[in-house]
């Protein structure tokens, strides 16, 4: 009974739109048109045969494959480093968390300047150390990796804070007992005590980070607009293009449904594979 | 098992503006069971942690077996410790918990690694040695059926045995315990107390036991070291601590209910307390204010003023607590200073005398057991009871003491 308001909101704001989009995927509705009809699985077939859409999913997968481990790994390393400090912890926490709080579209201008092929400081520095210029955002082979780097930068703050919370929940006398057993602050303590006890946090961070990574849109829309030559097309950007550029709502809905299914399966797979091996509590 | 002695030399420790340890010096002989007893915040846990290597002292030295360990990391000191929360590794099985000290101690760095460790040649023998040791300790502590469980599935007493197992498995030269029984329920605590003492006698390892529970310290230790405010106040056997306190703080801390402290004055070697000149002599004691300490069992009550004699105070009974084998009577002294007294009456001493539960009674002290403390709290000794032999015999016959 008490859950009724929340349940109503959940149904109205989440479930009903979901079903609506699901139904929309079977139509040929165009944004604003009065006449539309059911077309069965035509949108899905078009999705499978369209190279651009397939590439979009591929690029999204590559992006997630880079961003998730990178932001988890760096986040954990930074969290361990911050936790080892005695003073000025707050200062470092704030510094690393700032990118998460920043408005990305504003940051996009900064990144565009930084990574500019000719006048960008990064390229000037690369030239100075002899590596030579790299066209980060305009070279089809590198653009997606560049975006992945930016995405990692944005997510590190979040993973760091979450890992810090997880580390704080490890009781300090476990570390004392470990010290007496011969485990100093080194590798042994990390793989025998810290990482296993951090496992629930790691799973949570992995799932939320991968979901966020799947939904990459800001950097694509602001920096490369899917280019160069479709090299940074990602799933959500394709949905946006289909829905609002080409006004093909039916097609967009179909891509959305597939997108949702992929994310859901990926998250469930993460849970299923690790659940038994993680020690809770 | 080889065991070592411990020496603390003028150890100091400061946290910010707070002096936690103020020049603590203590020697502990090999094989002894010593309790560090004291109220919360007295520095006993800090001293233990400094010995274990988990904290550093600011100045002074810590020696084990004659050699300074002050700069040795905790893992190399060969010291085992049991924590109040047991600190078992929750994600490892009991078997792995027990094996961890041996894995860290005997296997090389590469051999320890999860997957590749097995491929390193020569590791098999060490692994089977470790497995044999785990089985031996599990057998000794009767936890063999629990070996494949995780700590979360164990009861408090079982967890403690695993903690003990993990501590003794590598044959340490010192055993440190930081209030290990305080998270167990009362019945289990008493049982584990005797088990710990038996184990220590059997293994003969020097043991240092931190507690705030004086009953534990008194029943388990060879010697007790009482710490208050970062300093050692007295070190001695339980009997000495109880019957021969060097300071009023020692007398107050040990003994339940607390010792009764009455204000008194010393003049010319005689003692006056609450209007009565006491038949005791303190030759050489400085003139001035002092405190007369009488434990609840050193006092006796009588409803008959005449029978009580000259050396007795008047007091009103506030409350009598019946505990079955004894009765604790709370009294309020009649004299000017508001002095509250607690008198312990054992069942035998009461039989035959029917004391009311309210009203005014005479309080008769057993001055042979009285303790006198000067203004600074130090014990004034010797204290000679000058009660006439005849009077003493008469009061003994009266069956009140």
Give an overview of the whole structure:
The complex is a heterodimer of chains A (281) and B (401). Chain A has 281 residues and is mostly helical. Chain A has helices spanning 4-24, 42-49, 51-84, 89-101, 104-114, 121-128, 143-168, 172-180, 187-214, 218-224, 235-245, 249-274. Chain A has one domain: MetI-like fold (Orthogonal Bundle), CATH 1.10.3720.10. Chain A is built from 12 helices and no strands. The relative contact order of chain A is 0.14. Chain B is of the alpha+beta class and 401 residues long. In chain B, helix 2 crosses helix 4 and helix 2 packs parallel to helix 5 (156-168). The two termini of chain B are 48 Å apart. The longest helix of chain B has 18 residues, at 123-140. In chain B, the strands form 4 sheets. A 7-stranded antiparallel β-sheet of chain B has the order 21-20-14-11-12-13-22. A 6-stranded mixed β-sheet of chain B has the order 6-7-8-3-9-10, with helices on both faces. The interface between A and B is medium-sized, with 21 and 31 residues.
CATH class of the largest domain in chain B: Alpha Beta
The proportion of residues in beta strands of chain A is under 5%
Structural class of chain A: mainly alpha
Q: What portion of the residues of chain B fall into strands of 2 or more residues? A: 25-35%
**What is the number of independent domains of chain A?**
1
* CA-based shape of chain B: elongated
Separate helix tally of chain A: 12
What is the CATH first-level class name of chain A?
Mainly Alpha
- How far apart the termini of chain B lie comes to 48 Å
Unreliable parts of chain B: 393-401
The CATH architecture term of chain A is Orthogonal Bundle
CATH architecture of the largest domain in chain B: 3-Layer(aba) Sandwich
State the CATH superfamily name of the largest domain in chain B.
Answer: P-loop containing nucleotide triphosphate hydrolases
Mean pLDDT of chain A, nearest integer?
89
User: Major sheet of chain A: size, sense and barrel closure?
Assistant: none
Biggest interface and residues each: A-B, 21 and 31 residues
Order of helices and strands of chain A: HHHHHHHHHHHH
| Multimerization state | heterodimer
CATH fold node name of chain A: MetI-like fold
Count of domain modules of chain B = 2
């Amino acid at each position: 009974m008490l859950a009724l308001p929340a349940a109503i909101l959940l149904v109205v704001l989440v479930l009903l739109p979901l079903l609506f989009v699901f139904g929309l995927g079977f139509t040929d509705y165009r944004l604003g048109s009065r006449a539309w009809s059911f077309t069965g699985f035509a949108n899905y077939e078009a999705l499978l045969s369209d190279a651009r859409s397939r590439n979009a999913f591929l690029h999204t997968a590559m992006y997630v494959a880079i961003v998730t481990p990178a932001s988890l790994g760096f986040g954990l390393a930074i969290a361990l480093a911050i936790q080892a400090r005695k003073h000025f912890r707050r200062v470092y926490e704030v510094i690393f968390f700032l990118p998460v709080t920043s408005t990305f579209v504003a940051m996009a201008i900064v990144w565009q300047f930084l990574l500019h092929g000719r006048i960008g400081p990064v390229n000037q520095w690369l030239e100075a150390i002899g590596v030579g210029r790299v066209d980060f955002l305009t070279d089809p082979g590198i653009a997606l990796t560049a975006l992945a780097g930016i995405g990692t930068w944005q997510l590190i703050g979040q993973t760091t804070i979450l890992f810090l919370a997880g580390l704080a929940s490890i009781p300090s006398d476990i570390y004392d007992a470990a010290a007496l057993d011969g485990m100093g602050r080194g590798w042994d303590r990390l793989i025998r005590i810290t990482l296993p006890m951090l496992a629930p946090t790691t799973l949570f961070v992995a799932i939320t980070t991968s979901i966020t990574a799947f939904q990459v849109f800001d950097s694509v829309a602001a920096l490369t607009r899917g280019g160069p030559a479709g090299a940074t097309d990602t799933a959500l950007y394709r949905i946006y293009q289909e829905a609002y550029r080409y006004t093909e709502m039916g097609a967009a809905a179909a891509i959305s449904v597939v997108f949702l299914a992929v994310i859901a399966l990926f998250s469930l797979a993460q849970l299923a594979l690790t659940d038994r091996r993680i020690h809770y509590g | 098992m080889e065991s070592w002695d411990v020496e603390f030399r003028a150890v100091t420790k400061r946290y910010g503006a707070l002096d936690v340890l103020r020049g603590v010096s203590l020697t502990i002989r090999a094989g002894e069971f010593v309790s560090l007893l004291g109220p919360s915040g007295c520095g006993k846990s800090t001293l233990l942690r400094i010995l274990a290597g988990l904290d550093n002292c600011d100045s002074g030295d810590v020696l084990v077996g004659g050699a300074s360990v002050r700069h040795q990391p905790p893992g190399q000191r060969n010291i085992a410790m049991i924590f109040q929360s047991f600190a078992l590794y929750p994600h490892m099985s009991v078997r792995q918990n027990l094996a961890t000290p041996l894995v860290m101690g005997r296997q090389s760095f590469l051999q320890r690694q999860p997957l590749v460790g097995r491929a390193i040649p020569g590791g098999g023998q060490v692994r089977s040695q470790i497995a044999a040791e785990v089985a031996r300790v599990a057998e000794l502590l009767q936890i063999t059926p629990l070996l494949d469980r995780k700590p979360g599935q164990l009861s408090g007493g079982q967890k403690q045995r695993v903690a003990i197992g993990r501590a003794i498995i590598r044959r340490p030269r010192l055993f440190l315990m930081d209030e290990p029984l305080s998270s167990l329920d009362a019945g289990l605590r008493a049982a584990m107390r005797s088990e710990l003492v038996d184990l220590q006698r059997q293994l003969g390892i020097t043991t240092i036991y931190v507690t705030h529970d004086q009953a534990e310290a008194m029943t388990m230790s060879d010697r007790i070291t009482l710490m208050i405010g970062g300093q050692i106040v007295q070190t001695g056997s339980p009997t000495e601590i109880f019957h021969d306190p060097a300071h009023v703080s020692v007398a107050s801390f040990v003994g339940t209910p607390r010792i009764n402290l009455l204000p008194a004055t010393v003049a010319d070697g005689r003692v006056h307390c609450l209007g009565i000149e006491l038949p005791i002599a303190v030759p050489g004691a400085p003139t001035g204010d002092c405190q007369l300490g009488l434990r609840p069992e050193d006092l006796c009550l009588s409803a008959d003023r005449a029978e009580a004699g000259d050396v007795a105070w008047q007091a009103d009974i506030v409350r009598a607590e019946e505990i079955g084998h004894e009765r604790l009577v709370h009294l309020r002294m009649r004299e000017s200073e508001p002095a509250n007294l607690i008198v312990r009456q054992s069942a035998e001493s009461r039989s035959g005398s029917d004391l009311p539960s309210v009203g005014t009674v005479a309080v008769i002290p057993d001055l042979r057991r009285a303790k006198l403390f000067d203004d600074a709290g130090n014990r004034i000794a010797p204290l000679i009871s000058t009660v006439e032999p005849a009077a003493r015999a008469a009061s003994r016959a009266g069956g009140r003491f």
